[in-house]
Specification:
Blueprint: H1 13-22, E1 29-32, H2 34-37, E2 52-55, H3 69-92
Length: about 100
C-alpha cells in the first residue's frame, strides 16, 4: 500500500503467518523512488522519474516449535523489516559494497 508520507510502514501480520506455516525463505525487496513518482496524494503517476528495485539476500528462518506462533510471527516480521531497512540504507548511501 502507498504511504501518505513515503516512510516504510510496519509489516502486516499475514506475511509472517504464511512464512511460519510454509517455512519458506524470504527475499527482502526495497522499492526506491516510488513515492516521488506516485504518492498517495496524486491521482496519476509522473511519466518520468527514477525508480529502483533492490533485492536482498534470502532470509531463512529456523522456526522453533517451543515458541508460540504469535511470538514466532512477531520475530519474523522484525527480521523482514530489518532486512528492508538495511536495503534502504544501503541504496541511499550509494549502493556501495555487498548487498545486505
Amino acid at each position: 500500500k502507498r504511504t501518505p508520507d513515503g516512510t516504510l510502514k510496519p509489516m502486516k501480520p499475514g506475511i509472517a503467518m504464511l512464512i511460519s506455516r510454509t517455512k519458506a525463505a524470504v527475499i527482502p525487496v526495497y522499492l526506491a523512488g516510488t513515492y516521488e513518482i506516485w504518492s498517495q496524494h496524486k491521482k496519476f503517476p509522473k511519466l518520468f522519474g527514477k525508480t529502483a528495485c533492490v533485492f536482498g539476500k534470502p532470509i531463512h528462518f529456523d522456526l522453533e516449535s517451543s515458541k508460540d506462533s504469535k511470538t514466532q510471527q512477531e520475530e519474523i516480521s522484525r527480521v523482514i523489516e530489518a532486512g528492508i531497512q538495511k536495503l534502504k540504507k544501503w541504496y541511499e548511501e550509494g549502493a556501495v559494497g555487498e548487498i545486505p
